Amino acid sequence: TFTVNPVPATPTLTTSGTPATGITLTSSATTGNQFYLNGVLIAGATAQTYLINSGTKNGSYTVVATGTGGCTATSAAVNVTVTATATAQAATSLTVYPNPTPDGQVMLALSGYRETVQLTVSNTLGQRVQEATLPAAALGRPQALDLSALPAGVYVLQARTASGGVEVRRIVRE
């Protein structure tokens, strides 16, 4: 007699934060995580998130999720480079509402941005499903984002500026 244990779902890694505050890696697996840097196990890095707060930790990150039967699945690599900035950046914030959204219509409130923002919406497989560019002149007022053409699920919204600022939010489309 033998037992076949299921392989856990392949985890995905998302990033959030800034070089000034640190970059947080978040695994889609809620338990059983182990983070790696350049293929080397990071001792003690077994939570769902891992904070990178120093330029000495630049490199290729992966997470291995271990299921209840001991089977593992490895995420795609995420390359992270944290560099010091010479000038202080203004505090920025990105708010998404309503979230979850029953009809796919969400509003974005972006504050503190002084340059054009590139928006990217990705599915849980990391595939880009929607993109938009918001000019700096439009950022002082709420912006509509129409996700109604997308199926129900979890999506990752990334707001990126030309100077390297990135904010990430999860959006649930019911």
In words, what does this structure look like?
The protein is mainly β and 174 residues long. It has two domains: 13-80, Immunoglobulins (Immunoglobulin-like); 93-173, Sandwich (Immunoglobulin-like). It contains no helices and 15 strands. The protein has strands spanning 13-18, 22-27, 33-37, 40-41, 49-52, 59-66, 72-74, 78-80, 93-97, 105-111, 117-122, 128-134, 143-146, 153-161, 166-173. The strands form four sheets. Strands 3, 4, 6, 7 and 8 form a five-stranded antiparallel β-sheet that branches. A hairpin with a 5-residue loop joins strand 11 (117-122) and strand 12 (128-134). The chain is flat. The termini are far apart.
Instruction: Quickly give the structural class.
Output: mainly beta
* Topology pattern, helix = H, strand = E: EEEEEEEEEEEEEEE
CATH fourth-tier homologous superfamily of the largest domain: Macroglobulin (MG2) domain
The rounded Rg comes to 18 Å
What is the end-to-end distance? 43 Å
Q: What summary fits the major beta sheet?
A: 5 strands, antiparallel
Assembly state of the chains shown: single chain
